[in-house]
Amino acid sequence: MIAIQTLKKAFDGRTILNGISLELETGKVTTLVGPSGGGKSTLLRCINGLETFDAGSIEVGGIKLGPGAHDRAHLRAVRLKAGMVFQAYGLFSHMTALKNVMEAPTHVKKLPVAEVRARAEQLLEQVGLSHRKDAFPRELSGGEQQRVAIARALAMDPEALLLDEPTSALDPERKVEVVKVLRDLAKTGATMIIVTHEVAVVRDFADRVITLRNGGIVDDISSL
């Protein structure tokens, strides 16, 4: 469960988030939609601790964030609960797909390498990329890179997966690849919060659609 209470965030005198309160359920797919500049990505980054905020609180899996800066250990605990997938992939260019997926569990969780490798290979197979495990990011298409990024986030076994415009940088064919992976994850009961303009995501498998405009929630629709 992610609980957000009266969250406020301003930047250079402009209000980005204006007292947002909501609860995001475990095992559900929530999409954040709305016009550019409405606060969607900022909200996602606040949940993950990538952005500070000015007032209110965020609770992620029992760990609470308040206004202002947080120490590294606190942020690490939050990020273990809520994994982030970025629009621009963010893969390590000098590592293969497999090594990218293995990196955090090996060095952050300190898990045995053999165990991490087996899990990474399983995740790459899950996103349809077992045959590309030895390829470097420069050798992968945008859709393939984004699928590796999703596998990398899942490798930390987060309670929730946060995805910021995961298809916006892709051509139509590659978007289909990534949407299929997200749809398959939704069927497993994964908790996802997705900032998106992709109609297929909203229409096909979102349990809840929240519309943000001018830093506030203007619509909140749950599927039956």
Key features of this structure:
224 residues; 6-stranded mixed sheet; 4-stranded antiparallel sheet; 10 strands
How would you describe the overall organization of this protein?
- By secondary structure, this protein is of the alpha/beta class.
- It has 2 domains: 1-83 and 189-224, P-loop containing nucleotide triphosphate hydrolases (Rossmann fold); 88-157, no CATH class.
- The protein has 7 helices and 10 strands.
- The chain has helices at 40-47, 72-81, 97-107, 113-126, 142-154, 172-187, 199-205, and strands at 2-11, 14-24, 29-33, 55-60, 63-65, 82-85, 160-164, 192-195, 208-213, 216-222.
- The strands form 2 sheets. Strands 6-7-8-3-9-10 form a 6-stranded mixed beta sheet, with helices on both faces. Strands 2-1-4-5 form a 4-stranded antiparallel beta sheet, covered by helices on one side.
- Strand 1 and strand 2 form a beta hairpin.
- Helix 3 packs across helix 4 and helix 6 runs parallel beside helix 7 (199-205).
CATH architectural grouping of the largest domain = 3-Layer(aba) Sandwich
Arithmetic mean pLDDT: 92
Computed over alpha carbons, the radius of gyration is: 17 Å
Distance between the termini: 20 Å
